[in-house]
Prior knowledge:
Elements: E1 2-6, H1 15-32, H2 36-43, H3 47-52, H4 58-63, H5 79-85, H6 93-114, H7 116-137, H8 149-162, E2 167-172, E3 175-180, H9 181-191, H10 202-218, H11 220-237
Amino acid sequence: MIPLSDANPRLTSSIVTFLIAASTLAIFFLYQEPQIDEVATALSVIPCELSTGEPVSVVELREGICRLGDAALFPEKSLALSVVASIFLHGSALHVIGNMWYLWIFGNNVEDAFGRIGFVLFYLLAGVTAVAGFVITDPLFTGPLIGASGAVAGVMGAYIVLFPKKRVRGLLGFFPVRVPAWVFLGFWFASQFFIADVQVAWQAHVAGFAFGTIAALLVRKPARARLNQLRFNLEQQA
C-alpha cells in the first residue's frame, strides 16, 4: 500500500522532519546521483567491512566473497561513520523519494510526540538498529547497504504504537483505501516477510520497525502527555 495522507494533523512546525527529508533529498540529487556507485561504496555500510574490521577490496566487490587480507579500495574509510552515512544515501531517485514521502506522512506526528531533539536521536538510533539487524543476519554481504528505509520503518513502528486508530488514506494497487494506522502499518510490516527473495534489505526494515515500536512503548506515557500539552496550547491560542 502507498500512503497518501493521514487524518492526524501535526501540532508543531515539524521542522526536524522537514530538515531530514530536505537534506536527504539534497544529498542524493546534488551529490550522490552523479557518482552513485562510487559514493555508495566509499561512504556506506558494507556488512563484510564491519565483520572483518577493514574496508573491502576490489576483488571482494567483484567476486562477492568476503575475506581478509586484500588491499582496500578505500583504505581511509571510517567504518563507524559509514553506519550513519548509509541512512542518508540511496540507490535511485525512486528509492529516496519513496522513503522521504513515508517519512513526511508519518514523521511529523512522531516528532510531535518525541520533541525535536528526541526525534533526531530516535531517527538515528532506528537507522543504526536497522543496519545492525541486516549485518547480523548477513555479515558477509559485500554490497553497500544504503537507504533511510530502516530509520523510516522505526518511525512507522512508533506511529503504530502512538496513533493506532488514526486513519490513513492510501492506495492498494489502484484502489483507494482508508483504514486505521494499525491496519495500514501492520500490513506493511507483514509484507516485509514476503519480499525476502527480492533484493530489498527487509531485515533492516523489520529491525527498524521493531526498534520503533519498543522505543514508543517505553516512552508512551510521557509522549502522550506531551501531545496533550501541545493540543491544550493550541486550543488556548485559538
